[in-house]
Amino acid sequence: MDEEEAAARAREWLCAQPGGDRLRIRPEFTARRPDGWSFTVNAAAYLDGTDIGAGLFPGPVVLVPDDGGEIGVDRPAMASTPAEAEWRPDVDPEFDEKAFPELDLPVRAVRSWIRTDGEHRVNEQYTPGPVWRGFPVPTTDAEKLLNYLAANWISRAEFVRALLDCEVLVPLLGTGEPLLRPVPGTGGLEVIAYSSSAKVPGRYPRRWRVPVRELPPSSGLTLDPGTGLVRSLTAAELAAVRGAETAPRPPVEEPAPEAGPEVAAALPALVAEFGVEPSDLLERHLRYALDHARDQHFELTPGECVRYLRGFAWQYRNGVRRRAGQEPEWPADLGANGLIAHVDENARPRPVPWTFGKFSAFGTPADRFAWHRIVGAYVGFAIGDALGGGADPANPLPLGGLTRHLLFHTDSVLRGLPPMPTGEVPATLPGPDPAGWLAVATRHAGPPPAEFSALLATALAATPAGAVALADVDGERYAKDVARELTGSAAGAEVTEGVELLVSLFQALLTREAFALPVHVRLHEVGGDLAVSTLALRADRDADDVTQLESIGDGRSVRSVLGRALFAAAKRGYDPEAAIRLAARSGPVAGAIAGALVGARVGVPGLPWATELPDLGLLDDVASDVFWYFNRNGLQTETAEHARWERRYPSGRFTPEPTGPNLRSRLRGSLLAGAIGDALGAKTEFDSIDRIREIAGPDGITDFIPAYGGVGRVTDDTQMTLFTLEALIRAHAQERRTGSADVVHSLQLAYQRWLHTQGVPWDRARGPQSAVEVADGWLITHQELFSRRAPGLTCFGELEAYGRSGVRGTIERPVNNSKGCGGVMRAAPIALWSDDLAEVFRLGAESAALTHGHPSGYLSSGCFAVIVHELLHGKPLLDAVATARAELVKHPGHEEQSAALDAALAEQGPPTPEKLERLGQGNVGETALSMSVYVALTTTDADSALLAAVNHSGDSDSTGSVCGNLVGAMYGEEALRQSWLDQLELRDVIVGLADDALTEFGPGAPGEDRWFARYPVD
What we know:
This protein is an alpha+beta fold. Strand 10 (180-182) and strand 11 (189-193) form a beta hairpin. This is ADP-ribosylglycohydrolase.
């Protein structure tokens, strides 16, 4: 049944009721229900004859069922005397009853009715408030009315009646006359007015504040032209509700902020203090600032005007000093003097007058994106990153590692792309210069979050590249291609989909239009499963935010982190502080994404805590650079800026001089740090954290604890790692000498030699296929190895079994179903075997399969070997993990290890025993690796990583060893604590074996007999 047919049935039914001639349907309040139609009735009395009473709701509603069933009335029984139960409306807080007493309470603004006895009745005609729906937060009564009308809370007639007593701002022409324009086709005139000062265009610095009732009676009114809520009223409409004509008030100019007493007093004082010439220079620059701020629909307050003038005066004085050959001098407190610290191409502070995020110092050209929105997105990102990392906004907010990565991604975009898209994104974009100005300026930043969802930051860096849409280039598609290059091929489908969704959102939110539609509206436009589920949660307005947030996945996966960020920005986007706080509960990535989304809409002026960012100037600087680079009038093309730009963002791929540890330092560091971690955890292997604190003190392990009769003693983890490396050297030497080698066979025999050091006679350890009478080679000559240090039962048992049968375990023919950590703990040296990552992974897995038959027991080893390989070659750990994971998922049975890695990457903040315990105990392959990766990612030096890796309940020596292999490869030998190196058992053996490996795998491998005696053929 359609609306027209249902309305006809309702009218017919009403006419048959007592007093039906006084009952009328209010068509503007018709609502579709699942079972039919509801029609609100406007009447002087209820159907049963009782008085409605002023202000009592709900009004009667006639229900017309779709199935043709009985028509009825839906209303509560209103009390006729105060002594009986009465209903009171639960009004949407956005409706200001006190501001508009002449308005009846709109039915659509009533959320429900509550009776004094507690009964609750939902209003099906309720429409959520305009701000909730995404309209701007009103600052004046006129803006409130515009919102109410747009939300259909009030009728046009009610709007006009209430607007009469609201003040508006009418621009004044140079003659002092109000701004009027002809009404086409009528011969009449209309007044142009604005509902708030910030909406008055910059070209009209003079304005007249006047109630609508006192406007010229023969003129119409257009309110807020050029905005999303423009309304035009005819002279007849205004006259119909104005009543008796009042004499219009003669225009009396209201001083603009810059014409107030505060600014008027500051101008001559600053001219005198700073010696500004000509004397009107400051006034002219203030006019420039005000004009451009108003072009972006911002108003500078009198206090901001004075601070901006002081900042410009400082800049003027230092310009004079430079021209005189003198060094500039700046005040200690930049902010109080209207300055903000940009950063020059030498990473030095470059104070400039602050524009408060309201306009660009270089102007505000019309283009696809707005400058203030891009800067707002970057600043909001940094705020959310800091809060998500645990920062207290009552104090200065630190620069988070995720924000540093955003700036690096932006640097890559600026150096690797042309300002005008060509249709194709370069196959690779340049990485950050480790010695460049941006790296130096951000070196105080914290570590980046240890999770794949951190790659979502690439969306914001890539979006401005789509600013210039050419006839043959889709700007949004181009920006998505840029983001894909930034994330890399190993990112995975979840990351790619999430980044593309964010690019679409940012493309819409960064609009130069005065009114930016809110996140939830843009999310609806983008569509997709995640958008649908997010908007469904948002629709439950009264549900607890935190409960809803925590229902979105586990808070670790990319989809969950993104979903939480979108939910916070969509549900609370009208309140940026609430949105960022909510998202930050899920960590820095969710906080940063939500902050960027709301920041893109409101700009820096609408963000909380922006001035608590010590790096605000750097963020403003880089965001401005990316805005101008992809602007049609690119700033970098100007003669005065071109040279500086080239120094700041040198084009082409950057090939850095090696500044980090070299390969020798990384390999030595990996093996030595692995042994240190092993020794740190040797005493407390499998102890609980409470027991560890009993043994080592309340801070847990902070140094070596005596174990196995000494300090710095290692366990089977280090012993077997050394035999792994020896096997690789021997196999490689054999291949050079004979042309072929079975490296897995060499690994098997090396582990049999280790078994011999554990007290098993050689004739029982070597295996029936070996004819070697005595265990040979250089490594086994070191008597320190002949000591049992709690060897793993699985390793020991399977190697003993090989000694009897000569049958080795393989991936295809597993020897057992064990997934213990004995395979991964010894696999780090396999990183050296090849530059083919698939080959490194395969050998890592096959080496572990000799003793461990479960996929998580051997795939963890392959994954670990690839990570170490990448670290030895200077790759960042997060990139190394992404590369290894991409290789991992190609293998059957990877799910457990993949999930463990994802959990580690999603864990937030510095490592604690409790966080490590959430990941596992480290006694099986997948958790030993994931716990070690988490610790290495969330610490900033080898010391803290090694100590964190052993202070937990579980297999502390193995996580210490595996984590040590990682951080040693990251930071190099020089980063290791000297006192630990001095006390470390087998230190000289480890260093000697590492150096021999580099010799064997290097370009000048020895060919003399002495070398082959040291590393004989197996």
